[in-house]
Amino acid sequence: MPDQISTERGSRPNVLVITADQWRGDCLSSVGHACVRTPNVDALAKEGTLFRRHYAGAAPCSPARATLYTGLYQMNHRVCRNGSPLDRRFDNLALAARRAGYDPTLFGYTDTAPDPRDMDANDPHLTTYEGVLPGFTVRELLPEHERQWLSWLRSRGRADAVSRDVHIPVGAAAGEISDAAPAYSREETQTAFLAGEFIRWMGEQDAPWFAHVSFLRPHPPFSVPEPFNRMFKPGEGPAFARAKHREMEQQGHPYLAYAMPRTGKGSFIHGADGPLSDWTAADFDAIRSIYYGMIAEVDDQLGRIWQALKDAGEWDDTIIVFTSDHAEMAGDHWTLGKGGYFDGSYHIPLVIRDPGAASSGSVVQNFTSATDIFPTLCNRLGIRPANGIDGRSLAPFLDGGVAPGWRDAAFWEFDFRDIAHGEAERHFGLRSNELNLAVIRDEQFKYVHFTALPALLFDVVNDPMELRNLADDPAYASVRLNYAERLLSLRARHLDQTLAYTELTEKGPVTHRP
């Protein structure tokens, strides 16, 4: 029997967990963005709870999602990069949902590399990091090659949809930054495809359900159809958080000097070649305006899902979690993508609508973490995680209250080892386990600890763009020491507790569940 805990909130609900890959936490109209409008996320927030200071636990995709799905910090789940296997011993939200009596069903992807230790060496699942989180039933798998979506497009008469070249805007050359639209329409995007598949599946259900809809967008390549492609003009939006010149930015830290020149264009504009450093400030302006349009496109499809839930009479029986795995630099600090230590990569949206909650329309300013999603769902479904986890349930906030002893800072990690090729190891002359950083960030300061590279300290109140490193300023020595000690204590509290809360006694095993 599953280890049950009591719940006071009615019968078993439906659960819908939605991730929109690479969506920045500041890109919501409900938090006051200068130009982005997200009416459907805003509508969800009005009936639910909006978390203003929500942060990913790691980057890129696989590490970030491992944190989201397991409730563990990277220091415990050890998914260090795309392709790092997720240890099979860890519980996750799909396995937990299954114990609660659901058949958790996936639309999209989870980027979970399988544990190879009990698999045959010739198993093709060992050749990709785009595996499926254990516990999920897959209804529609859509990894980055997008073949299922391309096949669907061809079935709709798009004979040219034979490869990802379909993302190249009509009239543009491969690799060209263009606000022209691709050939497919707003009803034919990957987002529309997955939304439609979920809606069709929902209509087949005759019992409470659990679904994870994992949208690729606004992840690059940066391209979006009408009317979203020209919805925002280059130059609209807040000032970029960056130094005056790219060279000044790279001089800010040895990690930046290593990583920035190695970031390629091809990850962001389909068909592009060469380093990101070839792009000008105007190019970043143009790309960011397309990124904003991609956010609007996803929001448009979220509205379609909300309406389908209402039409089916499921709206008031469904817990909805909307979030992202990690964020997007979007030109801040002269770069794109995710990773490193800047807020732009880790500040992500979170909105939860729980019809059984005692409050709605509330805004939470406390620091929350991707680790909190798993324990929140476990709390709501009346089950316990099968192992110790690092997050805490957000249920007190959903009920309009406060959580005693809640964290007073955000924490995240980034690992830049290169197991397959060893490039980072050779560049820095360091071992793989020395190529990582950890961040603690509160309302006043942000401290970045590198295992074997210089530390960083920013006053985020007076230097919100994180351009002035105070780590070596004698006037801030005591501040640096304080944050280093807080980080050390945080890591000590969250070391793997799987068996640490169990003690064998003369009366048998005693387990304490905090």
From TrEMBL:
CDD domains in the cross-refs: PMH
Statement: the UniProt record of this protein carries the keyword Hydrolase: yes
Name assigned to this protein: Alkaline phosphatase family protein
InterPro entries: Alkaline_phosphatase_core_sf (IPR017850), Sulfatase_N (IPR000917)
UniProtKB keywords: Hydrolase, Metal-binding
Domain Sulfatase N-terminal: 13-383
One Pfam assignment: Sulfatase
Species of origin: Rhizobium mesosinicum
Domain of life where this protein originates: Bacteria
PANTHER family: IDURONATE 2-SULFATASE (PTHR45953:SF1)
